[in-house]
Amino acid sequence: MADIKREYALNALLALGLLLVPIWALYNGAPFTITLFTRIAILALAGIGLNIALGLGGMVSFGHAVYFGLGGYVAGILAQHAFNGAPILGLPGTNQMLIIWPVAMVLSGLLAAVIGAFSLRTSGIFFIMITLAFAQMVYYFAVSWPAYGGEDGLPIYVRNQFPGLNTMRPFELFIVCWGVLMLALGVFALIRASRFGAALMAIRQNPDRVASLGINPFGVKLAAFVISGMITGLAGALMADLSRFASPAAMAWTMSGELIVIIILGGTGRLFGPVAGAAFLVGFEVFFGGLTEHWKLWLGLVLLAAVLFNRGGIVALIAGRERLG
Amino acid sequence: MAEPVLTLTDLHKSFGALKATDGVSLTLNPGEIHALIGPNGAGKSTLIGQISGRVLPDAGTITFRGHDITRLDVAQRARLGLGRSFQISSLIPDYSARRNVMLALQARQGHSFRFLMPVMRDRGLRDRADAILDRVGLRGRASVPSAELSHGERRLLEIAVALALEPACFLLDEPMAGMGAEGVGALVTFLRDLKTEAPILLVEHDMDAVFALADRLSVLVYGQVIATGTVDEIRNDPRVREAYLGEEA
Questions:
Q1: pLDDT tens for residues A260-287?
Q2: Cβ–Cβ gap A190/B78 under 8 Å
Q3: Any B CB within 8 A of A196 CB
Q4: CA distance to A100, B95, B126, B161, per residue, from B130 (Å)
Q5: Does A196 fall in a domain?
Q6: Residues B126 and B112 in one domain
Q7: Distance CA B223, CA A175 (A)
Q8: Does B74 touch chain A (CB under 8 A)?
C-alpha cells in the first residue's frame, strides 16, 4: 500500500512540477526554461504512445519515430499549404492545431495499422527489426522527396494556432502541450485499467494462454499498436510546432531509440514512466551537455545501470515494482 | 447414444520421418471422462496440440459440437467452447489468482475491446471469479500473484481458469502432474463431479487416478490408438499390457 501512495505522490510531483516551473519561468523571464519544459512534455507524450505498445503490450517497436516524424510532417505540410494557399489533395491547408492533430493521429494510426499488420506476425528480435526497417523506409522516402524539403526538412514560419491562445508565446504553447499530456495520461490510465488493458497486459506475459481463453492476441495487439502510433504521431505534430520545423531527423532510428530510452529510464508500463524518463533525459542533456561533449557516454552508463540493477526505471526506484492486482 | 462432443477422424501428423500421429480416431461423449494414456513419446502432446489448435494435422478432421474445427486457430476453438488446461502451468504470472480467473470470464463474455470501465472495479466479474476460486479451494489465495502460488495451487488455478470458460468440453493435459497424493485425491473427487458439467478428455500419467476416473481409456503407442475401452477391458488387453502397462508392472 505504501508503494501505491508513493507512486501517487511521485505522479503528482511530476505533473505539478512540470506545470509550476514554467509558471515560475514565465514571471522570471526565462523563456528557455519554458521551451525546455515544453520539450519534456512533448517527449513524454510520444513516450506515452510507445508505452502502450511496449509497456503494456510488450511490443518493442524500434520504429516509433516514424509516427513522431509523420505527425511533424502533417503539421508542417498543412501549415505550408495554408501559408501559400495551394490545395493539397484537393483540400485547403490549415494552420489550426485542432484540425492538424486529428489528421496527424489518423494518418499515424493508419500507418501503424499497416506496419503492425505485417510486423505483429513476428515477435522478439524479428519484430524489432521489422519495425525498424519500416521506419527507415519511410525516413529515406522523406529524405529523398524534394517537394517538402527533403533532407533539409520543412520550416514552419508561423506556429499553428490554438483557439484563444497565442502559440508564438512560449508559455501559451507550453500550456497546450501540458494539457494534451495530461489528457494522454488519462487515456493511458483508462486503457490500462480496462478490459482491453487486462487482455493486452496478459498477452505480454503469456500470449498462448490468452489465445487458449478465446482472445485473439493479434487483434488486441494491433489495436494497441494503432492507438500507440496515434499518440506518438500527435506528439510529433506538437514537436514540429515547438521547433517550427518538420524534420526527417524526427523519423530517424536514433529518435526511435531515444523513445525507448525514455520508457526504460522512466519505468516501462508505468503511468508516469514516460514523464519521468523524458524529464530525466532532457535534464541530463542540459546539465551534462553543458559540462562535456561526451554526455551521451554518461547517459549510456546510466542506461546500463538502469537495465542491469533497477529494471523498473525511476518510478520503480521510488515506488517499487508494479503490482497488477 | 448422444452425439459425441468431440470427434477425431483419422488424424495424421508427421515431423519428417516421424509419424507422431498415425491415423488416430477417437470420440468424447457427453458426460464421460475419456482418458488418453500412453508411454512417453507416444504422441500425446502432438495430439493435444492438434485438438487445441496449436498444431495443424497433415490429414484428417476434428469435429467439435458439429463444427469442423480442423483449420480453426486456438482462440476460435476456445470461443466455441474448448477449455484446456496446460501440462506445465500456463498462467498470467503477474496477475493475481483472481485476475487470472477474471480474464477468463472476460474472454468468455467476448468483451475484450472495452476501453473505459476499470475491470478490477467490475463487482459482477470479481464476485464470479471469487466463487470459482472458492470451488477449487483457492478463495483464500485470490490476491496472490499466480507466480507466487505453490505448484499445487497453480494446478488448481489452471482448473479454475478452465471452469470460468464454461466450456463444452475440458481438455486437461496432465492436471495431476507434480501434485502430492493428497492433492491428487482431492482432484479426483473434483473431476468426477466436473464431468457432469462437461465431458473431459484427460491426459494423465498417474495411473491410479486414471483408473479411478476414466469411463473409457484410449491407449496411444507410436502415434496409433492400439486400444479403446473401459478400464477393465484395457487392463486385460494383452497388447496394452505388452506395450505399456508391462513397463510399470
A1: 999 999 999 999 999 999 999 999 999 9
A2: no
A3: yes
A4: 48, 14, 6, 11
A5: yes
A6: yes
A7: 68
A8: yes
